[in-house]
Amino acid sequence: MFSQLSEDIHTAIENDPAAKSTAEALTYPGVHALLFHRLAHALHTRGFRVTARIISQFARFLTGIEIHPGATIGRRLFIDHGMGVVIGETAIIGDDVVMFHGVTLGGTSSNPKKRHPTIGNNVLLGANATLLGPIEVGDGAQVGAGGVVLTDVAPDTTVVGVPAEPVED
Q: Are 121 and 94 in contact (CB under 8 A)?
């Protein structure tokens, strides 16, 4: 757990030029949200679902970032200015993802199945991007600010707009 916290702090410093020290990075709500999520996720996977939800709701209260304990998050996720971020129960996030405020990884069904997005590695999700349903966002993709993504995004593709469509880089 401490090695992950150290990695999260280093990731914040690496991704945000405003974070000039470990102490400063420790004040970031994205770092706090990930720390709480790891604890809640560990409890959730061991069957302590109510306790996990209590922890996730406490983290939401403190940080403004809501991550369901069932969500699977890879290494080195950076949530910048995280207020309003929502990550649903069946969402899967790969490694080295950068996510800005207001991003929603939401579901489109109430069925207890895979209903939230899967985000690949090295993906950038712009401010207020909304990704809905069991879609896949390929490695290296970028979703522009305010984009609404309802279908799969190919690797190394940039999508923008409502609904989000590919653009030339």
A: yes
Q: Which residues contact 35 (CB under 8 A, 6 or more apart)?
A: 5, 8
Q: Rounded distance, CA 39 to CA 113, Å?
A: 23
On whether the CB atoms of residues 134 and 116 are closer than 8 A, the answer is yes
pLDDT per position as a tens digit, 64-98: 999 999 999 999 999 999 999 999 999 999 999 99
Task: Quickly state the pLDDT bin for 111 (edges 50, 70, 90).
Answer: confident
Q: What is the token pair recorded at 14? A: 């690496």
The one-character DSSP state at 153 is B
- Rounded Cα distance, 62 and 81, in Å: 13
pTM of the model: 0.94
